[in-house]
Q: What sequence folds into this?
């Protein structure tokens, strides 16, 4: 029904430069309510009525923030569904993922490229971590609460270790290249 959460993943990170003409996104996200709406939409696409309930604010206030977020290309309408009264209502989702806000003289294109590589590395290590966990550390076998063999109580989560090393490597890569951009 709704697009998958990673529908915009191939677009890479959207870099918003505070010193450029990207003020609409920053202005739209300056409100705590707007940030709460975006956080909720990152969980799953939903309607303004649901957003009003979960953010504990009025539907009018939610529509105000959605209009601002949509104008800034932070959220978008991805579908329409019938509400409980039979009227068609919009379903909203984040317009892209992730959103990075920078300030200063950073080279935008280079920063986007560095972030794309770092995010790609994290994804690759996540897959490698799952594979390593499955191959190197199979789960112990339990039936009805009784242990039937295997490793006993616990084993080192190999997949988590591989993923953690990958995340640290990606962060280090991003930090080193970001510092090079500052020079």
A:
């Amino acid at each position: 029904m709704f697009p998958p959460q990673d529908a915009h993943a191939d677009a890479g990170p959207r870099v918003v430069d505070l010193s450029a003409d990207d003020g609409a996104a920053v202005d739209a996200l300056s409100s705590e309510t707007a940030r709460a709406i975006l956080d909720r939409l990152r969980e799953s696409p939903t309607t303004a009525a649901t957003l009003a309930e979960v953010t504990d604010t009025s539907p009018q206030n939610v529509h105000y923030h959605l209009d601002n977020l949509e104008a800034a290309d932070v959220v978008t309408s991805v579908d329409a569904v019938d509400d409980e009264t039979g009227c068609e209502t919009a379903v909203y989702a984040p317009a892209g993922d992730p959103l990075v806000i920078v300030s200063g003289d950073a080279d935008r294109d280079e920063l986007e490229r560095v972030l794309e590589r770092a995010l790609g590395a994290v994804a690759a290590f996540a897959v490698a971590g799952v594979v390593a966990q499955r191959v190197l550390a199979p789960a112990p076998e339990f039936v009805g609460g009784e242990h039937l063999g295997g490793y006993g109580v616990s084993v080192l989560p190999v997949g988590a270790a591989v993923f953690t090393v990958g995340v640290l490597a990606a962060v280090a890569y991003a930090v080193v290249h970001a510092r090079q951009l500052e020079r």
